Amino acid sequence: MGVEDRKEFDQEEIMKGFMDNIQHQDNGRYKVRIPWIEERVPQSSNEAQSRARRKNLLSKMKGDVREGYDTNVIEQLELGIIEEAPNNKEGKRLFYMPHRPVIREGVVSTKIRMVFDASAKPSPEEYSINECMNPGPPTQPYFWDILIRSRLATVCIMRDVEKAFVQVEIEKNERDAEAL
Predict the structure, then answer these.
(1) What is the pLDDT of residue 56?
(2) Is residue 23 exposed (0-12), middle (13-18) or buried (19+ Cβ within 10 Å)?
(3) pTM summary value
């Protein structure tokens, strides 16, 4: 496909460091550290913008959508996927991640799910939280390989990895990059 790492950062070394620090928890989840780019730090908090987006979102939601959204938030709180932002905030990367619901009609598993906006910026000249993290090596070449191998096999077994990304837990001391 012609997708290659441009070697802006040594992504293979960053990926190795990330993989070396993954811890499997007793609850079945994985604890990870965020692969920060040390010299990129948001200069200010985006708390005001995130609160405004949330207020606007809640004012627009009605009926079943609002009920499903509230249920989703409560479920994620109970499962430890999300947490309330603490009053005493620490860390050099204080960031609130705005989110919105995505509604999928005609699905059985999850009709309403939250999608987080890690590209939100406190102001146009500042970094988003996405821009403060190393992206890791590109995975598109692996997808191409998987696609080709699946076409060559006589039988292909597939599985839906429902809620796979919510099985990852961020280390406590790196959680000031928070959802709101």
Answers:
(1) 92
(2) exposed
(3) 0.67
